[in-house]
Fold these 4 entries.
Entry 1:
Amino acid sequence: MTSSTLEPRTATGMAERRAAVEAAAHRIRRHALFMGEVQGQGYVGQALGAADILATVYTDQLRFRPEDPEWEDRDRFLLSTGHYAIGLYAALAEAGIIPVEELETYGSDGSRLPMSGMSTYTPGMEISGGSLGHGLTVAVGLALGLRYRGNAARVVNFLSDGELDEGSTWEAAMGAAHHRLGRLTAVVDINALQADGATAGVLRTEPVTDKWAACGWRVFRVDGNDVGALLEAFDAAGSGSAVTDDGEGAPAVVLCDTKVGRGVPLLEQREKAHFMRIEEHEWAICNEQLEAGWAARQEASQAKGQEEKA
Ligand SMILES: Cc1ncc(C[n+]2csc(CCOP(=O)(O)OP(=O)(O)O)c2C)c(N)n1
Ligand SMILES: [Mg+2]
């Protein structure tokens, strides 16, 4: 497995930033398949779908010190969806907060990397998230507390579309706008899926853009597997004239339409995608498909670059 530690924001130009994030997203996908294979199952589809979001946040957006995960001025990333922990562990390994070698302990007895995220177990895991629908409420309190203390850290809360079924999410959304928490960003993984089936069939939450706007948020909706679009949305969400130096302003939400299993066609087509059981012989196919897709994309972007130069 390739390993590398990413320093946040080493790249400056948009093309460079995008390339750095895309490479990190690929490694996050690789790590996720590796962890899934060790366990033989898991929330692999979510990690693959959200890899571009996680890479954007950890490679490009957040300020943190890998050697000091408790650094007081760090930006906070709150994963309210505990079952997405596999994706976050991959991102934390990429960020240098946990060792890449530790990923193979995922889901094992005594591991710091349990299947559902636990803040007391894992460095860089800000909250425990097994009970869904609470992350945004914690994020609101945290953002408010940081502002009272004069700390300019950004708070980013990652939610799933299933969490939009929960009343507590909307109470928090209204509270954030009421308190003008301009340094709070919510990011929603709209993968159109929940444990009980398609999101549209469980509870119709659309039009979600209008709902967030009605609660007083600045809203950005993007293809959550398009790194360029993610970078632009996160840049706009994080700063700008919309937020005062004291952090007062409308909070921002980045609504990300993603594809479960993204990057591995075999898994993109799975019907039962919430908790994937993957046969032993299928892991090699998954890894091959991931690498083949990445190689093809690299070739295409190199050819495009040469065309543009010519
Ligand atoms: C408060 C609460 N209610 C129910 C559950 C059971 N549960 C676990 S995952 C899940 C699906 C939630 O939707 P989403 O996160 O969008 O699913 P995914 O995209 O990962 O398939 C549910 C209902 C839970 N963990 N917490
Ligand atoms: Mg979902």
Note: The longest strand covers residues 184-190.
Entry 2:
Amino acid sequence: MLFLNRIVKKRIGIGTWSWGNKLFWNYKSSNDDDLRETYNEALERGFDLIDTADSYGTGNYQGRSESLIGKFLLDTPSAKKKRIQIATKLAPYPWRIGDKGFNKPFLKSLERLNNKLDIVQLHWSTAKYNPYQELGFLNNLCDLKDQGFDFQIGLSNIGPKRLQKLINYLSIRDKNIQSVQIQFSLLAPDLQKQYQVKNICEENNIDFFAYSPLSFGILCIDPDKDENKERSFIRNLLFENYKKSTYELRRVLKSIAKQRSVSQAQVAVNWCCYQGTIPLVGMRKKSQVIDISNVFKWNLNKNEFNYLQEISRKCLKKMPNNPFTSV
Ligand SMILES: NC(=O)c1ccc[n+]([C@@H]2O[C@H](COP(=O)([O-])OP(=O)(O)OC[C@H]3O[C@@H](n4cnc5c(N)ncnc54)[C@H](OP(=O)(O)O)[C@@H]3O)[C@@H](O)[C@H]2O)c1
């Protein structure tokens, strides 16, 4: 794909927030075989990035997403393993402070992932309430790299001003940022700010990961059918809440999908790809991987993209913002 005079390879990541999350995603360990199938199918079909976090997994399932990926990695041939990037996020809990506060969590994640960890991201910015904590985190990661651990540094839920500051801060230690992930979809809040982050990423050769590209699945709901899928209480509430306000947007997604004989999900994900971003799509079924892999085969045209932009602007009720996202 040609983007700002650069040839950009289309990439899509597998999001694994739901792998272990009962509260929002209704996770059941009896479905772990589905997750293994999801993982295997993704590797077969050219997905080369998996995003997880040490905080993924609720209650007793804390760390479950990383553990499952680690387990699946054990059965993955080394050539395939080399081809994919595993990105985790470490949570800046208030007790993880100083230049060594992330040593233990880092080693724990590395253990759960069976020593395959390519990108370590700060899960959210602490700039609003404890700006020094994230500087400690970055120093901690630089030290770990200097000690010989082989990984790249990433950020998440960061605003443009803080991002620029942290880029400069890291350059003093001769390190750079590999990736930044923020909420980015047709329903993402404050898209103008997200575009500022994206511009900084492009200027600094940083991969821009678009998280929640399907707005937790809302963008996939058929505007003309009443679906009776088994969902968590919170997700049902959320879907009910956004049904009316997103109707027009979903109707346009469906009309483009119909013309192209693809799914609504593919159109929404391709909207991210059109802009040179790397969407992290939450998937937990083989059928979802098969569907989304078709995004590698086609692109939106300019008219379709402009139409989606217009209808997204008109939809006034956007997804909730991550409260920690910095300025
Ligand atoms: N840094 C952060 O703070 C942060 C925050 C949120 C997310 N993330 C990352 O971004 C990833 C993706 O975001 P997300 O999980 O919030 O949600 P998402 O990608 O916007 O939506 C995922 C949901 O959409 C549905 N879906 C997926 N493919 C589909 C298809 N082909 N057809 C129909 N429906 C489909 C599935 O729901 P059903 O399975 O119920 O059908 C799936 O669980 C996360 O897993 C995580 O890795 C990061």
Note: Residues 131-146 form the longest helix (16 residues).
Entry 3:
Amino acid sequence: MNTPRKISIVVFLLLSSFLSALEPTKARTGEIDQIWKALNELKAHDFSSFEHCCHVASYAEIIANNMGLKPEDVQEIYLEGMVHDIGKLDIPTSILNKPGKLTPEEFGKIKTHPIISEKILSKYPFLKNLIKAAKEHHERWDGKGYPRGISGNQISIEGRIIAVADAFDVMTSKRPYGKPKSNEEAILELIDKKGTQFDPAVVDSTVLAIKSHKIVIQPACK
Ligand SMILES: [Fe+2]
């Protein structure tokens, strides 16, 4: 993440903290340090998970903008993207980067990461706002997702947007299994899963953003 981006996020967090709680910001600055520390730990643990968070944050920011969300909500969704997979800190890299199919036990372990993300973020009251997408980005519109099996609008807009951004990055990235899909192939898959896995409105906005070249595959970490 480059310095101007980092500064703007810190300013946003401090300002929203000040306005929402009117509490001294010293402790909050400590919490921001903690989250940078956690992101750096994720970077060291598994660089591809960190890179994935950067991509998802960038895609989610564009999708949220396209959907007409307020600028402060767009900024929050960007941050939610950055931390949405922080729980992967607790998943062994032998599982995260395993070439080939995961065993049921390994997949069970992977499925714990939204709960772990929630636990990590909930340690910091200031970061509570960023928990929604972390715990809900593997929920599905039809209720067949995890960890809670909630559906439709029970899933926060943050969770629904990050779910699509996350899937788009997985589809278009080089992974231990399978080759990356092209934009066109990814669009077809998103449309195929519209109304089952994904919120139809989020898919429509994402497809528009891809077709109008607002979304560029594999953006550098800002
Ligand atoms: Fe995830």
Note: The domain at 3-211 is CATH 1.10.3210.10 (Hypothetical protein af1432).
Entry 4:
Amino acid sequence: MPTDDPAAPPPPSNRRAVIATIFNQKGGVGKTTTSVNLATCLAAGGVRVLVIDFDPQGSATANLGLIGRPVPGSYELLMTGTLSATLMQTTAFPGVMLCPAGDALAGADLELAICTDAQNLLRQALHNARVPIDVIIIDCPPTLSMLALNALVASDAVVMPVTPDPMARDVLHRAWRHIQRIRSTLNPNLAIAGVVLTMVHDNPVHREFEQTIRGELGNRVLPVAIPFDTAILGSSRHDLPVCVFAPQSAAAQAYLALAAVIQDRMSALSRPVAQPAAFCDDTDGAEPACVMTPVPGFSHDTAAAALRFWSSKAGHTEPPAPVTKAATVAAPTAGRAPASGWHSPDRITGFAAGCVLGIVLTLLARAIGL
Ligand SMILES: Nc1ncnc2c1ncn2[C@@H]1O[C@H](COP(=O)(O)OP(=O)(O)O)[C@@H](O)[C@H]1O
Ligand SMILES: [Mg+2]
């Protein structure tokens, strides 16, 4: 299992981490959920990961449990051009580091508008960084802003989450064209690691969408789809990745399988050899600009055991039973941690008891003529 040992020796001076951006111009398609869970599953399997929260909304920072801490992060990374140790915060999960989004990130787009070479700032910072990290995952905002452009220019690969609905498909096609433009101008080494279908229901409409999109994009659509799973809603409430909150849930299992696919693709990219990886058949023979740290092998069983352990440490000693796609819709709260707030079972029971007591007292008062 990985450690965040600050005394760990730095990697050889000519090696840098492989960088992947999670991008789609549409909001609510599962970018943050994918970033955080992919990172956690990879780390559980022995890969050292840094998540860069590049969305001013800070959802990845929240989901990894670091919201509200005024620590330097991705804004400072951009503006200083250096990935120093002070910008990488440890999380509750060994092997997952976070470069968080702070308040200042919201103004970064405006500041970048008047910088020269603004689109290359992140690339310079990350390509020069020699940190004990194998894979950097960048969680993007839902627009092709200067922040997203910086992420795509800095990256070796892009993963595009998409939900199975016609509107999301149109946006995906637009995002695809933008990425092709970036590849032909600013970053010819950007490989499309794949499109990942998210929030998929087991119904004919989603099945037909999946068929259409696979027909259009072929094996660029990753073989693992993430099912719609209400365990994810519970995990957000607890500021935990679903793979730790409910490691047995359908979504967690899917993210674990996705991590194996992505590890495979990242390690193909990080080969210090002359030809491009087999899956990126459209890179026009572009070569990696410098040698990347080889991504370590990924063991599904080791990762699953680590996730169960982290889950028990987070207070989820009895994770919910596996949730089937149909069951996620039919029984949204089955087996989940008890809800807090006005809809918690305790409050509902208390409210019902109060009503019964009120009725009894009213009847008693009438009976004795008050
Ligand atoms: N597989 C899923 N099943 C159910 N809800 C999901 C799933 N993936 C994401 N969500 C929920 O959908 C919302 C949007 O997801 P998010 O990852 O924040 O998208 P984005 O980063 O693209 O805006 C969040 O409330 C998240 O908890
Ligand atoms: Mg997001």
Note: The two ends are 72 Å apart (CA to CA).
